[in-house]
Design a protein that fits this description.
42% strand; seven-stranded antiparallel β-sheet; 196 residues; alpha+beta
Length: 196
């Protein structure tokens, strides 16, 4: 937990420091925020298309859900220390409103390498969606999702429940992740990008 707080602190410090010392005009900052929102929408659409490629049944599940959130994450594992950082957006299917979000995690573990993966959350109801978006969310040790490849009417269902009213797909460019480890990961609203 101490490592996680250090990572989040460093990330927040760098964001604040870069904002204060960038020397950019309010108009330039606003334009950069607009471009970042456009980029996140594009990445979200790409993530959904990748999901539909490997889990076609997800299209119908997303359409039926109250809303969904997509995240593009980069994970780094350096011998005893691991960290993830990423960005994404949540989409409310009822109102059509997008909320731009960030994520980060850190921990101790063995390994070496970098992994690029995507996460897609589905929200069954307003309460689950609003809590995730407005209050933020931290995945605890019970929130690991192991994808089970069960044939059901010819469709592979690899979405796992990670909290009440929340299901998760986690995938890489090579397909659905067999083990979706999300414990110790925090998700929160990006205040700057959500300014209108």
């Amino acid at each position: 937990m101490q490592y996680f707080k250090l990572i989040v602190g460093l990330v927040l410090f760098s964001l604040v420091f870069s904002g204060f010392w960038s020397g950019k005009s309010p108009r330039e900052v606003k334009e950069e925020s607009r471009q970042e929102r456009v980029e996140r929408i594009k990445t979200s659409n790409e993530t959904l298309q990748l999901l539909y490629k490997y889990a076609p049944e997800a299209r119908e599940m997303i359409l039926r859900s109250y809303g969904y959130a997509t995240f593009s994450n980069i994970g780094v594992n350096l011998v005893l220390f691991s960290a993830e950082g990423g960005k994404g957006m949540a989409h409310n299917n009822r109102t059509g409103v997008n909320t731009y979000m960030n994520m980060a995690s850190g921990g101790v573990g063995f390994g070496l390498g970098v992994k690029d993966f995507r996460a897609v959350f589905l929200f069954e109801n307003k309460k689950a969606y609003d809590t995730f978006v407005n209050a933020g969310w931290e995945a605890n040790a019970q929130a690991d999702a192991a994808a089970k490849y069960e044939q059901s009417g010819g469709a592979i269902n690899a979405a796992e429940t990670v909290a009440p009213g929340i299901r998760l797909y986690k995938l890489t460019q090579n397909g659905l992740a067999l083990q979706a480890t999300i414990q110790g990961t925090k998700y929160w609203k990006d205040e700057e990008l959500n300014k209108r």
